[in-house]
Design brief:
The complex is a heterodimer. Chain A contains 13 helices and 16 strands. By secondary structure, chain A is of the alpha+beta class. Chain A folds into three domains: 204 residues, 2-Layer Sandwich (BirA Bifunctional Protein, domain 2), CATH 3.30.930.10; 98 residues, no CATH class; 55 residues. Chain A has a nine-stranded mixed β-sheet with strand order 1-5-6-12-11-10-7-9-8, sandwiched between helices. A four-stranded mixed β-sheet of chain A has the order 14-13-15-16, with helices on one face. In chain A, β15 and β16 form a beta hairpin. Chain B folds into two domains: 115 residues, Periplasmic binding protein-like II (D-Maltodextrin-Binding Protein, domain 2); 84 residues, D-Maltodextrin-Binding Protein, domain 2, CATH 3.40.190. The longest helix of chain B is centred in the N-terminal third of the chain and has 12 residues. The chains are: A alpha+beta, B alpha/beta.
């Protein structure tokens, strides 16, 4: 068992609260349900459009919260020059991607909404790195920018009509689909190979600006701006954070909502992205607000599956007391605790496998390992 | 089982998996005992860097998506049907066939009626007919799809066609091709972050196999 990580799953919310508070993020609390209308209009922002709905006492249609971001956007204050920064640790209720039933999903995350500046963007990416680092596992953060999709499209002369298909193929690093797309766009073998190589790139973030520019991305406004933003983010990260961040063009989030940097975080030992985030200026506009917004969510449920992450035993010692005098038991418990061990008291040894060690209390108040 | 140091490879049981394994062998990435007759399903190579699993072809994508395997070989039919969240790195060009609509030779599509479609691939069939704006009733079967139109259970079938001989033997005709199918090298997305070099080495070995 990894002693360092053991029990961290319970500690993580507190550690992250402290991390976010240090950067001026304040706690955002929600009620478990909201008016259905808040989510229904933007349902394709959600992983799945399905929601658990019910009729409230006043006859209004309500939904168990499938997402936190939209509630925060609605509640953020609009004021020139101001950005609202919130963090949360809440459950949402939705059908996970590829799933067929609703699940309660615990998310810890943050949102920065309003007059977002370059520093805010870099800070959010840095906080994403530090969030992943707090899991105690080796981590990688893949980052891209939605503006780069247009860059690739223009670089290869692919029509706007095929943008969705291009994004889907890039997202899965799908070489056969990219080949087919290139053939439909009338591209030759060399350009097809170049496109496939591009989809497979994983560039250390500090080298990404130069490499993407050398590949021709800087020629187009959208991708030149994107490269500029990624450069600013890269330069603001610490050396340690930057070591874990790679530019990867397969990071693509919903094109109707995201328009800036987008990222996905992975930790060694979990098979899917455990953190997802990015800048969703288009969602802000669609919700009738000004400015922009960005944030991320860490999904904590997969952490349970990491070996040694959750305590293996309910207690270090099972103390079998056979109905001895409570004062004798108390004294023995005190002695065990003084050794820094947790203790579960029980009359018999039933269910002893829950504890690392079993001890018996004799009638003199002495303990012995059995 | 410690998965971290190995590159875990899910291979589909059967001829396709054996053919794919022969590419690994050719690249010097073989595992001891894998060619011997036995009921064993997991094999490791001597250097302790590769581990092969034989799994049911339709389960390969699940093993890879869930990270039990880092890479695997799955048919495009399975990827289209279940849309697993994996990277699709390479078309191996093996196991080539097509997904098609077939029916009895005297079938004519009556657009005034709901079309009854028997298939193992209900998502593929749904998407295909939705793209045509055709109202359908999916009849999900797990095998012997070809007999559904013969017994009046369905009007058409949506199934994999390789040579067409099974259709012919059952008096069916291929009416429309939905898409081409072949075996794909797929990778778990998180594994690409931590074992990317190992995975791309395998991918490039396959790309240069001819």
């Amino acid at each position: 068992m990894n002693e360092l990580k053991c029990g961290l799953i319970d500690e993580l919310p507190r550690l992250l609260r402290e991390l976010y508070s240090e950067c001026g993020y304040s706690r955002y609390r929600t009620v478990g349900f909201e008016e259905y209308d808040l989510f229904s209009e933007y349902r394709d922002f959600l992983t799945s459009g399905q929601m658990i709905t019910f009729t409230g006492a006043g006859g209004r249609l309500l939904a168990l919260k499938p997402d936190i971001t939209m509630s925060i956007i609605r509640d953020a204050t609009e004021q020139r020059g101001r950005s609202d920064k919130f963090f949360y640790s809440e459950s949402v209720y939705r059908v996970p991607s590829g799933g067929d039933e609703f699940k309660e999903i615990l998310q810890i995350g943050l949102e920065c909404i309003g007059d977002v500046c370059a520093y805010d963007r870099a800070e959010v990416v840095s906080l994403a790195c530090r969030t992943l680092a707090h899991t105690g596992c080796d981590y990688m953060l893949d980052i891209s920018h939605m503006g780069l999709i247009d860059g690739i499209r223009k670089l290869f002369g692919i029509s706007e009509r095929l943008k969705g298909e291009l994004a889907n193929a890039l997202k899965d690093k799908n070489a056969p689909a990219l080949s087919m797309l290139c053939s439909r766009a009338g591209l030759g073998e060399e350009e097809t190979s170049r496109m496939i190589e591009l989809s497979r790139l994983s560039i250390p973030i500090r080298e990404a600006g130069e490499m993407l520019s050398s590949l021709g991305f800087a020629k187009y406004t959208e991708s030149a701006d994107a490269i500029g933003e990624l450069r600013l983010i890269a330069n603001a990260l610490t050396d340690e954070e930057a070591e874990h961040v790679k530019a990867d063009l397969s990071v693509i989030h919903g094109m109707n909502y995201y328009d800036g940097a987008v990222f996905s975080g992975y930790i060694d030992g979990v098979s899917e992205a455990i953190l997802k985030g990015g800048e969703y200026g288009r969602l802000i506009t669609k919700m009738g607000r000004t400015g922009s917004g960005l944030g991320f969510a860490l999904y904590t449920d997969p952490l349970e599956r990491i070996d040694g992450y959750s305590p293996k035993y309910a207690a270090d010692v099972l103390l079998v007391t056979s109905d001895r005098d409570p004062s004798l038991i108390s004294a023995a418990v005190k002695r065990i605790k003084a050794e820094g061990k947790s203790v579960l008291v029980q009359r018999s040894a039933a269910g002893a496998e829950r504890c690392a060690c079993v001890m018996k209390l004799n009638d003199k108040g002495e303990t012995e390992v059995i | 089982m410690e998965n971290r140091k190995y590159l875990n490879v899910a291979l589909p049981k059967g001829r396709l998996g054996e053919k794919v394994y022969s590419y690994f062998e050719r690249e010097g990435m073989e595992a001891e005992g894998i060619r011997e007759e036995s009921r064993k399903l997991i094999f490791e190579n001597a250097e302790g860097t590769l581990r092969f699993f034989w799994v049911k072809p339709s389960d390969v994508a699940i093993y890879v998506e869930r990270g039990a395997a880092d890479i695997g070989v799955a048919g495009k039919d399975i990827l289209l049907e279940y849309s697993p969240d994996v990277y699709e790195l390479f078309d191996l060009g093996l196991g080539k066939c097509r997904m098609a609509v077939a029916a009895k030779s005297n079938f004519t599509d009556d657009r005034s009626k709901t079309l009854r479609v028997a298939t193992k691939f209900s998502n593929i069939a749904q998407k295909y007919y939705a793209s045509l704006g055709r109202r359908i009733d999916i009849i999900k079967l797990n095998g012997s799809i070809e007999i559904a139109p013969l017994l009046g259970l369905s009007d058409v079938i949506v199934d994999i066609v390789e040579t067409g001989s099974t259709l012919k033997a059952n008096g069916l005709i291929e009416f429309n091709k939905i898409c081409d199918i072949s075996a794909r090298l797929i990778a778990n997305k998180a594994s690409m972050k931590f074992k990317g070099e190992q995975i791309m080495r395998v991918c490039r070995a396959f790309e240069n196999k001819d």
